[in-house]
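Re: the 199-residue chain
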Amino acid sequence: MPFRPARAEIHLEHDELVIDMPGKGMRRHPLHGMDASTADGVVAAKHEARVQRRFVRMLILEGAGTLIVVITPPDQGAVAPNVVRVPEAPPEAPIIDTRAWEALADWVLSGGRLAACSIADLARLACIATPQFAVLIGEVAAQRALELAWGGTGPLRHSGDIETQLFPLVAASRRSPRAGEALVSALAHIAGATRRRRR
């Protein structure tokens, strides 16, 4: 069997992170007041009766006496030579897929503001969102698409039609049910805005 440690699932709310640990239940962590940083680290992983040190990326959230470390999959990291000195990731740190880790890290490092996200950023975020947050992300993506599509008629201002603007969310919806919920929300918001504009 290839070396592949169990992955945790994350579900993001605008102010809370829910981590579904494999076989250990869910943990809820408020994000308000947390300081976020990233770092390279290593994990000691047992593989075929020997221990290897593997490089991982660590997302570190600290605040109110709480420390949360979320890491990328060690099986996708290079083997770390023993002479390399980097911090050890906590052994209980949840391992999440790299795409989810990147979306979460970008969100918390940017201050957790949807207004600062592009439609591509919103699409990545929708993939790890809770159902309620995915609906809100879809509404924000719809507003952004409308602004870009209706923003002007000049050659330098026109950015294409609404369908083109929403393409990152459409593509994400093919691999993520949550992104699909965000897309449905975006399309409903756009339909309502288009009806209002025609009146």
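The helical segments are 98-109, 119-126, 131-150, 162-165, 167-173, 177-198.
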